Amino acid sequence: MTAQPSSIVEARFSPKLKAYFWINGALILIATVAGIVLLPVWLFVGSWWASRYHASLSCRLTERSVVIGKGVFFRQELTIPLDKIQDVSIHEGPLLSALGLLSLRLETAGQRSAATGKSEADLTGVMDARQMRDQILAQRDRLAERGFAGAGVTNAPVEAGAGDGAVLGEIRDALLRIEARLGERG
């Protein structure tokens, strides 16, 4: 068994999130004809499910990634490398506002589902969501700075070394072939 990376920050989820899940489920059922029939079942089962789902939520910021856990019947753990995160945004809707909750969305390239428009990394009900967002972005920036410094990447101009002549020659020859083909078409 491999050791898990140590957490820098462990997110906490608001207890009001249970009410949000229960109310949200009830509203979805009310909005559909078939759901109205299932509403009495949801009144009993929904509270149990919301409590279990709330207890299953976890979010850890490690040195190199954000690890998100969730699920009642099927447990899911999602690891998002910090260097893949493009944006961390805060979302707030009418029901979230009424309960004093925020949703934190971690966005990576190509992650959003075309069908639902939702990200797999939507964290609803994170306490101190703005502070968590700032910590994720700060850790991502620290990681990027260390990565560039460790790789020897600088802003200094690149000078050709002794072994670069052959590579530059191949590039020149490829460009000349491309230019010749474009000239033939025009």
How would you describe the overall organization of this protein?
Residues 151-158 have low confidence and may be disordered. A hairpin with a 5-residue loop joins strand 3 (65-70) and strand 4 (76-81). This protein has five helices and seven strands; from the N terminus they run E-H-H-E-E-E-E-H-E-E-H-H. It is elongated, with a radius of gyration of 25 Å. Helix 1 packs antiparallel against helix 2. With 186 residues, the protein is α+β, with helices and mostly antiparallel strands. The strands form two sheets. A four-stranded antiparallel β-sheet has the order 1-2-3-4. It has a three-stranded antiparallel β-sheet with strand order 5-6-7, with helices on one face. The N and C termini lie far apart (63 Å).
Kindly summarize this structure in a few lines.
The protein has five helices and seven strands.
List keywords for this structure.
5 helices; four-stranded antiparallel beta sheet; alpha+beta
